[in-house]
Amino acid sequence: MPTILAYLGTPKYAKVTPGTADCYVDHVPRSPVPPYRRVADALRARIDAGELLPGEQVPSMAQLVDSYGISRGTARRVLATLKDEGYVYITPGWGTFVVETPPGQETGRP
Q1: Mean pLDDT in runs of 10 for the chain (110 residues)?
Q2: Which H or E element spans position 62?
Q3: Which residues of 9-35 are buried (b: 16+ CB within 10 A; e: fewer)?
Q4: Is the pTM here over 0.85, yes or no?
Q5: Which residues does 104 contact at the CB level (< 8 Å), separation at least 6?
Q6: Element (H, E) at 65
Q7: In 10 A of CB 54, how many CB atoms?
Q8: Domains within the chain, CATH numbers bracketed
């Protein structure tokens, strides 16, 4: 299983295990990429790699906060970004789930 290295604005390592993948997060001083984008990139990479399958629940806001050391507002923005990009859908009261056909994985069927 590939290890995904995601850089966040926290000065510590954080191990992410919300399923089958392990991600290690390290601090990058003065990174031009905001923390919400780095976490969204890491989750998007897991979806594209098939580690998070269609219909599977993605980490909750609380799990993102604990795992990546980000604020709830940043976690909310991560999920909203993935939703806007078409990678996930949000069901209030149930969670956030991977869409059946994420962008870039279209089957070419009509």
Answers
A1: 45 46 51 91 94 95 93 96 96 94 65
A2: helix 61-68
A3: beeeebebebeebebebeeeeeeeeeb
A4: no
A5: 48
A6: helix 61-68
A7: 13
A8: 4-98 (1.10.10.10)
